[in-house]
Specification:
There is one protein chain. The chain is mainly α. It has a domain of about 100 residues: Serine Threonine Protein Phosphatase 5, Tetratricopeptide repeat (Alpha Horseshoe), CATH 1.25.40. Helices cover about 75% and strands about 0% of the residues. Helix 9 packs parallel to helix 11. The longest helix has 19 residues.
């Protein structure tokens, strides 16, 4: 491949990656399809193609290109993505087996542990999912992403005390991570520590203001603390331009000991409507 061809390939890959980031999955697929006609095992192009197909819920079509690259080279990233694709194609047993093999590689490839744990959780094998992340943490005790995953899984398992402890360690190690702060806030909210949870959500929103779910959870905290005006204002902010958040907002209102209950959906929409003063 000459320099001109290399430049053309690199440009196509860059454009395809940008299309992926913008969730323009059709365009990303089109951009790399031409590259794969000349080289079916172009690793970078296959990775983009697989992610583009996953974005279109076309997991089955991503299997063969990934397997083709995997047969040519030992590649933990390709293997992990193949495992995820197999699970997405309703071949969970094959996908989990593939992910187990990749997680057994040394040196370890930690995204394989994370994907395996996620798929095990989806399959209802929550205890095994937790053990998978614990095994990964035994290999990398300071890995903050793994601690966050463990905290989430422990919350899912309703082991709130251990989840809080794990998430607090993760927060102290990475205080600027809004994803850790929101998960810790959720644990505190579930334990009824509304003031501490509100502080965590406020800090997270300071770092990521557009996080609608964090703002809805902050509203729930404020309502439980008796700060009805602040809580309802936060819910109206959540609803602005996000009709899909109506269910979460309505639940925050009705579940709070200081909230409100509406019999009709239209009444909730009117109460939280954009035209109401804040």
């Amino acid at each position: 491949m000459n320099n001109r061809q290399n430049n053309s390939r690199d440009q196509a890959l860059q454009q395809a990656s940008q299309a992926l980031q913008m969730q323009q999955f059709d365009r990303a697929q089109q951009l790399v399809s031409g590259l794969l006609k000349s080289n079916r095992t172009d690793r970078s192009a296959v990775l983009v193609l697989a992610h583009a197909l996953i974005g279109q819920n076309r997991h089955v079509e991503a299997i063969m290109p990934l397997e083709r690259v995997m047969r040519r080279n030992s590649d933990a990233e390709i293997e992990t993505l193949l495992g995820a694709v197999l699970c997405g194609a309703r071949r969970s047993s094959d996908g989990i087996d593939q992910l187990r093999r990749t997680a057994a590689r040394r040196p370890p490839y930690f995204p394989a542990f994370q994907e395996l744990a996620g798929q095990l959780s989806k399959a209802g094998q929550l205890n095994e999912a937790i053990r998978t992340i614990e095994d990964a943490l035994a290999l990398a005790p300071d890995n903050v992403d793994l601690k966050l995953d463990l905290g989430r899984l422990l919350l899912e398992d309703n082991d709130r005390a251990r989840a809080r402890e794990t998430l607090m360690v993760a927060r102290d190690a990475a205080p600027g991570r809004p994803d850790i702060l929101t998960e810790l806030g959720r644990a505190l909210l579930l334990d009824g520590e509304y003031a501490a949870a509100a502080d965590a959500f406020r800090h997270a929103l300071g770092l990521r203001p557009q996080d609608a779910l964090a703002r809805a959870n902050l509203a729930a905290c404020l309502l439980e603390m008796g700060e009805r005006d602040g809580g309802e204002a936060a819910l109206r902010s959540v609803m602005r331009g996000r009709p899909q958040m109506l269910g979460r907002a309505a639940y925050a209102l009705s579940a709070s000991s200081h909230g409100r209950f509406f019999f009709r959906r239209s009444a909730v929409v009117q109460f939280l409507g954009e035209n109401r003063p804040e």
